[in-house]
Here is the input.
Amino acid sequence: MGKAEARSRGRGGGGGGGGASGNPGKIFVGGLPRDTTDATFVRHFGQYGEIVDSVIMKDRHTSQPRGFGFITYSDPAVVDKVIEDNHVINGKQVEIKRTIPKGSVQSSSKDFKTKKIFVGGLPSTLTEDEFKSFFARYGTVVDHQIMFDHETKRSRGFGFIVFASEQVVDDLSAYDSGSRDH
Here is the structure.
């Protein structure tokens, strides 16, 4: 693990761990195989440019990887190329998304409209029906999915909700920007 930390300068110290911290060079990497090491993660994405921070998110109780992480590049221009390419790590295709800086969701929501939201931090015991029911109180849910590990069949701790209306997502984003304790 020492190599990965040295190559990903800034881990753990003032660099920005998991979430979108306002850095335009930061990407979300989802669908990571559980056996992905920090070194493999950094080596794969390091092909595109200098990495200033990297983290594979782990379950706080078991310390097992949760199947997603974040990479931050020193040059934000690299992100476009990373997003355009397909990525296979340890034989599994992973999903790359640009992070949206916290606090800018409201201001950018005029330009960026979506009906789909990412929901992280889901308890492993949450069912699909409970997931849908919770968000149905905010608007009509047209699709929902909790992401599960294909091998263990356990929840990966995150999922997606698709609403019938972009306005619901705008309203939730405005609510989210105002309070992080819900």
Remarks:
- Residues 16 and 53 are 7 Å apart (CA to CA).
- The chain has six helices and eight strands.
- The helical segments are 2-7, 38-46, 78-84, 105-108, 128-136, 166-178.
- Strands lie at 26-30, 51-58, 65-73, 87-89, 92-98, 116-120, 141-148, 155-163.
